[in-house]
Amino acid sequence: MRSLVLLSIVGLGAQLVDGSLGMAYGVTSTTLLLAIGTNPAAASATVHLAEIGTTLVSGAAHWKFGNVDWKVVAKIGIPGAIGAFAGATFLSSLSTEAAAPLMSMILLALGIYILVRFTASGLPKGNLGKPLRKRFLTPLGLVAGFVDSTGGGGWGPVGTPAILASGRLEPRKTIGSIDTSEFLVAVAASLGFIVGIGSQGVNYTWALALLIGGMIAAPIAAWLVRHIPPRVLGSLVGGLIIITNVRTLLKSDWLAASGDVRSLVYVALAALWIAAVAYSVGQYRKERAEELREAGETPTPTAEDAAAAH
After folding, report:
1. What is the maximal distance between C-alpha atoms in the chain?
2. What does the domain layout of the chain look like in residue ranges?
3. Quick check: 167 and 129 in contact, CB under 8 A?
4. What are φ and ψ of residue 252, in 5° steps?
5. Is the Cβ–Cβ distance between 96 and 39 less than 8 Å?
6. Is 170 helix (H, G, I), strand (E, B) or coil?
7. Which among 274, 299, 296, 275 is positioned nearest to 285, based on CA atoms?
């Protein structure tokens, strides 16, 4: 019972992060399942099964607040579903021994990307521009969908920054459209895993626990982003993903690192993580003060500042 409650909390936290950053639900949830010894294909299948519900609720919430560009959803969601199905069947064909380190490497790469991206510059601020074209969104969807199912996450970390970097869609609609189109990816990935591994190893109770937590969190993700700066949140999540997956790799047959080596690596990573979060908090405070000065106001502590300080 305790594990189910913890999974619900993880699902809630992961969806709060995903709904406010447009990424990291799958990466965070799959990382936890791998850490407790779940089969890689089963872990990804369990998470994607839960995502069918969470992305549906999240998409509805974003649609209600006007954060969805349906043309973008269609252009990236359909090829994303194709890539996700292909990735799921590919992962299902690998042995557990080969798949576990491979998935951890993908998750580690995504974690490094999230940490560096948000620590260095936070959530990019795009400007409205020309419409996003199929020749850009189609290959992006295929790659993001494939990475998402093979790595247990990656739709947001691959898709969201790419669209934001294009400067053609405002951030709130980028996040809303990515979250909404992820429903198609989750359905296709789940079907791919059913074809590849059937129901073997998939824990439906765990999927339900993740689903419940995610569905509770989806409508209040907008509240979170108003109180915890995305830059700080991204640094926190990125560091957690890195440390957890480095632990998996160090214990794998690929590396088989000794206890002393693992301890040194953990200490070094923890120090870097703390430094990254501290830097993000400092940069957020500086940017906040500059914004207030430009507006002709005196910088005063806010709820966001208090959240960032902790």
Report:
1. 61
2. 2-309
3. yes
4. -75, 165
5. yes
6. coil
7. 299
